[in-house]
Amino acid sequence: MNIDGKLTAQTLRDKLAIEVAEFKSRYKIQPSLTVIIVGDDPASHIYVKNKVKQTQEIGMISNEIKLPIETTENHLLSLLEQLNNDDSVHGILVQLPLPKHIDESAIISAINPDKDVDGFHAMNSGRLFNGEPGALVPCTPQGCVLLAKQHLGKDLSGLHAVVIGRSNIVGKPVAMLLLQENCTVTITHSKTKNLPELCKQADILVAAVGIAKLVKADWVKEGATVIDVGINRITTNEGATKLVGDVDYVEAFEKCGAITPVPGGVGPMTIACLLKNTLAAAKNSLQSR
Ligand SMILES: Nc1nc2c(c(=O)[nH]1)N[C@@H](CN(C=O)c1ccc(C(=O)N[C@@H](CCC(=O)O)C(=O)O)cc1)CN2
Ligand SMILES: [Mg+2]
């Protein structure tokens, strides 16, 4: 079966809109998100436009700061300091990737962890790693687990989850979340031996490597839940560009119990979970008043 991420994301946004309205009427505060984008990468601009639109649609304030590609690291750092100290800003997000001359990890480290709605700051990774409450958890991994639970139910205990990919943004945090759900977790990557055999043992297979259609039907266990994080643009034989995941959807569909499509699977959940984190950051800010 197909797991509809677009619909699930819409349902989550509807729920969040109600919670935002309640928060506003109770505390007289409107949650706010500031998104910074540097340069003119077309895909990044589309993602940011969608973030701004969806933030506003659920009743939160959205500020977009567009900076030219020549922006220096120091300029970005001083802007972040200003936003960190601004009590009216609850969430701060710097769209990635940044231009080559800017050190991404220095920028991520400069965001106040309590406003880090991407959940990329080491303080939030540490909170997630330690299973501490109050962690802002990266959005795509949250989306993956919500979609897996939508198909499998709340309890993932004892299931074998195999994650392909070990990035700080998806692979590592999704593995931590699945471990928190009492899954037995295997993290695999480009140097893993016997990758197809390992994947074939997965009850939950999360593919986040960025290689178009890497995962074939014979990598998938009968009845498995397949979560495809890949967003790869390929050129078809007819010369058109097409978006495909890390999993060969058509092949895997026959074997698996359920699979997320690309587009319309994990992607839409990323932005919905960003909105969830922004509301959480606004709620957490009440504690420091
Ligand atoms: N600061 C961040 N930068 C980046 C993140 C992030 O979470 N935080 N993730 C990605 C980009 N991204 C959000 O920023 C993102 C990517 C894709 C989608 C999405 O909905 N994709 C659609 C397809 C869209 C298309 O046609 O291109 C889908 O999968 O259905 C949402 C958000 C990297 N940077
Ligand atoms: Mg993300």
TrEMBL record:
Keywords: Amino-acid biosynthesis, Histidine biosynthesis, Hydrolase, Methionine biosynthesis, Multifunctional enzyme, NADP, One-carbon metabolism, Oxidoreductase, Purine biosynthesis. GO terms for cellular component: cytosol. NADP(+) binds at G165, R166, S167, I231. Residues 3-118 form the Tetrahydrofolate dehydrogenase/cyclohydrolase catalytic domain. GO terms for molecular function: methenyltetrahydrofolate cyclohydrolase activity; methylenetetrahydrofolate dehydrogenase (NADP+) activity. One of its GO terms (biological process) is L-histidine biosynthetic process. It comes from the Bacteria. Transmembrane segments: none annotated. Pfam families: THF_DHG_CYH, THF_DHG_CYH_C. Its EC number is 1.5.1.5, 3.5.4.9. The keyword Secreted does not apply. InterPro entries: Aminoacid_DH-like_N_sf, NAD(P)-bd_dom_sf, THF_DH/CycHdrlase, THF_DH/CycHdrlase_cat_dom, THF_DH/CycHdrlase_CS, THF_DH/CycHdrlase_NAD-bd_dom. It catalyses: (6R)-5,10-methenyltetrahydrofolate + H2O = (6R)-10-formyltetrahydrofolate + H(+); (6R)-5,10-methylene-5,6,7,8-tetrahydrofolate + NADP(+) = (6R)-5,10-methenyltetrahydrofolate + NADPH. Belongs to the tetrahydrofolate dehydrogenase/cyclohydrolase family. Homodimer. PANTHER family: C-1-TETRAHYDROFOLATE SYNTHASE, CYTOPLASMIC (PTHR48099:SF5), C-1-TETRAHYDROFOLATE SYNTHASE, CYTOPLASMIC-RELATED (PTHR48099). This is Bifunctional protein FolD. The lineage of its organism: Bacteria, Pseudomonadati, Pseudomonadota, Gammaproteobacteria, Alteromonadales. The gene is folD.
